């Protein structure tokens, strides 16, 4: 496909003006990046190759002599291939991890706890009242001492999806940098990263009440709605939302819909642990509508972004990615 034609298609695709046939072509082009993977990432030098080789061999079990069928040459080859491929996939898919081991104790005398996630990591937390929380990458969830004993309050920095156990006598509250979310029993997503100037709350089921830190009511949201709160002037507005956009991160994807550069940079940071930066006003002002997945290598994601922008990128000595 010629580059100029591709640019025209991408622009129509981003604006929502593309026909069904044109959208099909662009979607297939995006998917082709995943098919171009011909080698395991992070094997840029011999030292890394040797470390990977050693890790694979350590995971290959040695056959027992009594298992005669195993010693047959065709079976040896087949089993070896399966083991090696499995070991490589285990290493590769480990780039994006989902853990479910952080379970908060239901004991009333428990101490305050803090659950954190790093880049490329998602954790599932079960609170004492059976409320479940999925914590996105680069996030912090603070759980106070005695949670559930007279109050159900947590504090979030980052992003999380809450599936709240219903209790009409004891509302569930999430505190963030500027607003408080209160529910009885529902599921919703809260995004409140310190690096972003907006806080977003999206309701998946039920009803959510939102107020500021002075208890001034801001809005009541129902299923399919989200609220955007501006930290700078403390204003907010409510829109309808597509559930997949708000909660796609739980599946290892970043779905952006008319997002600003800061939101794009946060998504890249969550997926790859890499800081994205630019001094180009066009890049900063652009509104991004695209999807990145954990299956895509960083190079593939940057190729998509820079093709849309008709810009270039480079890796700084610090490891940051700079678009120019």
Automatic annotation (TrEMBL):
Keyword Transferase included in the entry's annotation: no
FecR protein domain residues: 114-208
MF GO annotations: sigma factor antagonist activity
Domain Protein FecR C-terminal residues, every copy: 255-318
Transmembrane segments: 77-95
Domain of life assignment: Bacteria
Keywords: Membrane, Transmembrane, Transmembrane helix
The keyword Transmembrane appears for this protein: yes
Entry protein name: DUF4974 domain-containing protein
Organism classification: Bacteria, Pseudomonadati, Bacteroidota, Sphingobacteriia, Sphingobacteriales
